[in-house]
Amino acid sequence: MKIVIKAFVASFFIHALYICSVMLIGFLKTSQYKPDLVNAWNHDGALQNEVSFGTVVSPSVYALTFLGTGLICAIVIMFYKKPV
């Protein structure tokens, strides 16, 4: 049972690191975005007033990756566990 808890804690930290890195990348892309307003006036279309980066993933995918990462972490912990 101890291996399962350690594996899910490791999986939680891996997912937290992933989510924080995605948010940081999105923040950096958004803060460094410079719209091309000079050339946009030459076109007849409407000017863009919103910017979005990224994709939307179903929450069930995150649940499956959490369980899969936990399984991989449990296997790694079992192989690297020192004999007592």
TrEMBL record:
The keyword Transmembrane helix applies. Keywords: Membrane, Transmembrane, Transmembrane helix. The chain crosses the membrane at residues 7-28, 61-80. This is Menaquinol-cytochrome c reductase cytochrome b subunit.
